UniProtKB/TrEMBL annotation:
Record domain HTH cro/C1-type: where: 54-109
Signal peptide span: none
Gene3D superfamilies: lambda repressor-like DNA-binding domains
Bias-annotated ranges (Basic and acidic residues): 1-15
Ranges annotated as spanning the membrane: none
Protein's UniProt name: Helix-turn-helix domain-containing protein
Classification via Pfam families: HTH_3 (PF01381)
Length: 127
């Protein structure tokens, strides 16, 4: 009875770089929550853009490349790339579709920092 060697996971892409799936780590649920909260807080505070936040969540939570993520959410890789680089003029429907893949949605916030803070703090008390 012969045994076949197990399939090896593809570790390098055509360019010779390690693939994201070869870098994938098991992340605890609490760590995922922390990453999500940190990214959301940075976006609300204006420290990072929506595109940068999306890319961080795609890479850190899902460990998948743009092609895989685009297919998962039903857009082209080009559109995803433009969104992540903040160069896109997509509709809010498409942006929501892309954000939904990492557990986010668009939300309307007042531009005034005081009102933002009051809104966020009031929501915490209601919960």
């Amino acid at each position: 009875m012969s045994t076949k060697p197990a399939k090896e996971m593809k570790v390098e892409s055509r360019s010779g770089r390690k693939t994201l799936s070869s870098k994938r780590k098991n992340i605890f649920s609490s760590d995922k929550d922390e990453i999500m909260l940190n990214v959301c807080q940075s976006m609300i505070l204006g420290e990072i853009t929506t595109g940068v936040g999306l890319k961080r969540l795609r890479v850190e939570l899902l460990s998948i490349n743009q092609e895989q993520y685009a297919k998962m959410v039903g857009v082209t890789r080009k559109i995803l790339s433009e969104i992540e680089r903040d160069k896109s003029k997509v509709s809010t429907t498409v942006l929501n579709q892309v954000l939904r893949g990492v557990g986010l949605s668009l939300v309307v916030l007042p531009r005034d920092k005081f009102l933002q803070s009051k809104l966020i703090n009031d929501e915490d008390e209601a919960i």
